[in-house]
Amino acid sequence: MTNQLLDHSESAFRGYLKRPIPVAADFALEQQVLALSRRELEDARSSSSLEDAQVFNAFAQRAAVRAVRDSDVTPIVAGLLALSIGGVLDYRENTMVLALLAHSAEKVGTDLVSILRANSSRIPTKALERFEDVASWTETERSIRLMGFAESGVGDQFVYVSRSPWA
Amino acid sequence: MSAVATAGVGGAARGASFTSVKASTALVEASRWNLANSTISWGKTAVPGLVNTIKTGALERVGGVVEAVKTGGSSVKAWLGGVIDDAGNTLRKFYLADDTGAITIGGKADEVRGSARSALIPAPELRAGAGYEFAPPNVPTGILNPGEAWTPSQGIPVIGRIPDKAVISGYPGFVRIEETVRRWNMAKNDAWIQSIIDQGAEVYVASPTEGNYWNAVRGEPTVFAREVQQLLQSGYEWQGDFLVPRR
What we know:
By secondary structure, chain A is mainly alpha-helical.
């Protein structure tokens, strides 16, 4: 399944996270992820490689940025679905991005719990349980600062940047 | 920035070696690094140690482009780089970076031949990893909740990427961060490692270093690399698959 989602040509996604936002791949992946059924997401999760998971992880972080720029919850949903595919990745790396999606949800006037509730039938069960757990943490525990991020820029320049949690 | 550096060489070679460095302008720099005819470790010891921040422009090409030859004969272009600390000093470290500027910390090539096909190349901006900050020394551990800090009674602490650590899940005598630290965040990760350092414990490394230090899609070190870096900067040394405090 993921082979159908991703262009596996060499280096196609090298440095994807750091590319300007948006790029065409953001929208292409978003459309494809949003079109998948829960069953297809579960299939993709079980067949995804580490490289696939890294791409979906980066896509989700970029989606968190786009959501704020466009004041749109759709990229957050797509980001959650993408993270649900990338279960093979070290869960810590997905937790960091999940915190960004939660932060973006609040910036666009909603919250992660509401988004999960509205999309619970779409997200694979195992991933949903993980997301709901993180959503139940205190704001401090899942703050982007403690995850190693900070906001930078406004409007179309808004982005999340790496920042030491000890800065 | 200075293009002069002296290589730190040692540790487990894992089959990576410079088998030759052809005569060229770049050889001057390569010789300063004592690369010619040396066996180079760029496995576990190749973390750009001793720096807490990879800054834009902190890397520069020295020694010219080399050809990194993989098993099977395919090759990639790579260049030798130095790590510049916050004060502008070139540290006694080296690594190879590919032609996109991404650091190859773990060694994508099985064999490296220093063919040194060009003279010194102007320092590029470090496109990948710019701005990333490793854990500083002696981070506070107070962010950990009761019972989350490592203690000897829990067993030998294990680090690595989570999927690799799963192979020792439930194995007696070992403990992973996810077994004691609830509601993980990066600050807690740093603090958990610090609690190990504070007690001078030996650490078992479950993941191979190759391919696990660098997330090429994010262009950043992995959490695992952050852990290794934190231990190395605190005086830990490699001893097989363990990181142990320097005695």
